Structure formats: C-alpha cells, structure tokens
Amino acid sequence: MRRRRTRATASGGVVLAAALALSGCVLDACPAIGYQDTSPVTLRFEKTLPRDARVAACFGTECAPADLPASADGGYRVPQQAPFLDDAVLLPTTVRVVVTAAEVLHDAVHEIPTRSERTGLWGQCPGRWWYEPVVIRWDVAGA
C-alpha cells in the first residue's frame, strides 16, 4: 500500500511539473533588470563636412545645442552629460544637430536608432540595448 502511494505521489509530481513546463508559467518570467546605454552617441555624416564647419548638438527637440569638437579620429560623439544632456532627459531618443559655416548648413532633430538583444527561453524578455550611430543626411552646394 505504501509503495502505491509513493508511486502515485511521484506520478502526480511528474504530471504537475510537465503541465507547468508546457504552460510556460515558470519559464516566462523575466528578471527585473533595467538596462541603460550611457555611452556617447556617434554622429555619422553622410557627406564630408566643409573645413570651416562647426558642429553643435544636444539631446531632445527643444534644447540649445552646444559646440561639439571632433574626436581625434575626426568623428563626432555626443556625450550624455551637460551641456548636451538636460537633467530632465533620462533616456535620450532624439538628438538635435546643427552644422554651421558662414551660415547654417543643417539644423534638424534626428531619431537615435537602437539595437537590442532579447533574453529568455523564447526571447520574450528585454535585454541589453545600445545606441546605433545617427546618420546625418544633408545637402550642401558643391559637396
């Protein structure tokens, strides 16, 4: 009698575990982890900038662009800190870019593209994400 009860309990446990596993109740849980990319956002100009061009940028749509010097490799990276980032902006989604020479050559707000990885058994959970380079397309006479 005792042997039957042990077998019945074991069989019931296996059936319950299989039901839970197949229903996804146990495996659908996502960890409570927040991800944030705090690296500078790269600006990639589709056309070469004029030699006397100045680049300014800021995060958001109603922001005041600050001068952005070129990096040692000639690229432009907007750091996520003042004066480019307002304290009210937690996760920037847009960047305003202004290019001037003798006159304003480009003044526009651009969406910042992102790339992310999914986690979980079926990719149902959000994972880490990164900012992709912002491609600046603009027309300049003679460029």
From TrEMBL:
Alphabetic keyword roster: Signal
Top-level taxon in the UniProt lineage: Bacteria
Signal sequence interval, chain numbering: 1-28
Name of protein: Lipoprotein
